[in-house]
Every structure is written in structure tokens, then in C-alpha cells.
Design brief:
Blueprint lengths: L9 H13 L3 H6 L4 H13 L1 E2 L1 H8 L3 H13 L3 E6 L2 E9 L1 H25 L1 H17 L6 H16 L6
Antiparallel strand pairs: 1-3, 2-3
Helix pairs in contact: 4-5, 6-7
Length: about 170
């Protein structure tokens, strides 16, 4: 039977790739009692020092309804601190707390070593090309395709497939 969708399932492939990649890092995170969500937040805060929760949601791919609970647990664990801005009490800034900073100091060499092992296994060029391809793909996806655009593209593709090579 001919599949009705001709393109490979890129989202599924990316999910599988992410899962396989994370299998290299989960043992490290588990050893320190850190969830993947918490680690993504810690890394973002380590890189940007302080962020608003909505920025963390966007950077770390965490849904907004989950963020308040995740940050509350991390604050209870002493990993992050949340402070309201004096000039706008509605806004909250999140930053690493001392314990979160110490945790990154302990985990960072292990994460870097694992990345180095992966880079050695696949080659620096493959590693760099993968990073670049993903960054380019993400940048190119800055706008969402509407249903109408998707339907129009599907109609055009179907018509293209029906057209015989060399003539009309």
C-alpha cells in the first residue's frame, strides 16, 4: 500500500533523536536528582543569568501552565530564586540560587565530557553540521503555516504529482 503522506515523519524522527541523545545525559541528571525540565531551566539561567517565566517557557520548551509548579519546586529545593521587579510588581525574574549554581558547577564537567564523547564518536563536522542545520530549521520556522496555506500546498502538490513529466 502506498502511504498517503509522501514525506518522512520529521517530528517523529526528531523525537527519537532527542530521546536517544538524552539517554546519554539522563544518568548524570538522575545521579544529581534533577529532572530534564529542571536541567533545561538551570542551563538557561546559567547562560542568561535571569529570565522571566515566559522567557523560560519559550527557551526550554515547557508549557506555561506547568512552569509555575516547576519553578515553585525548584525554589523549594533552593535551585532558583524568584523576585518581583520593584518598578513593576506584576513581573517576576528568576535566577539561579546558590544551590543551583553549585549544582551546575558539579554537573557541567560531566555534561561537557559526555558531549566530547559524542563529538568524538560522530566527528566534529557531523556535530557542527547537525547544530547548524537545526538552528537554521528553527530560524526558518518563525511563522506558523495556517491551515489554509497547508491545504493550498497540498492541492498544489497533488496536482503536481498528477502532471505527467514532459507535458500537460
Amino acid at each position: 500500500m502506498q502511504p498517503r503522506i509522501t514525506y518522512r515523519n520529521l517530528p517523529q524522527l526528531l523525537l527519537k533523536g532527542r530521546d536517544r541523545l538524552m539517554s546519554n545525559f539522563r544518568p548524570i541528571l538522575n545521579r544529581f536528582g534533577v529532572t530534564e525540565q529542571q536541567w533545561r531551566i538551570l542551563r538557561a539561567l546559567d547562560e542568561y543569568e535571569q529570565l522571566e517565566p515566559r522567557e523560560i517557557c519559550e527557551m526550554c520548551q515547557i508549557l506555561s501552565p506547568s512552569m509555575a509548579g516547576v519553578l515553585a519546586r525548584m525554589e523549594d529545593l533552593g535551585l532558583v530564586s524568584r523576585n518581583r521587579l520593584p518598578e513593576d510588581q506584576r513581573r517576576v525574574m528568576v535566577r539561579l540560587a546558590h544551590k543551583g549554581d553549585q549544582l551546575i558547577t558539579e554537573i557541567a564537567p560531566l555534561i561537557d565530557a559526555r558531549y566530547h564523547e559524542l563529538e568524538q564518536a560522530f566527528g566534529k563536522k557531523v556535530f557542527d553540521d547537525l547544530f547548524q542545520a537545526l538552528e537554521n530549521f528553527i530560524e526558518a520556522q518563525t511563522r506558523t503555516v495556517t491551515i489554509e496555506e497547508a491545504q493550498q500546498t497540498a492541492v498544489q502538490e497533488k496536482a503536481r504529482r498528477k502532471t505527467k513529466p514532459g507535458g500537460r
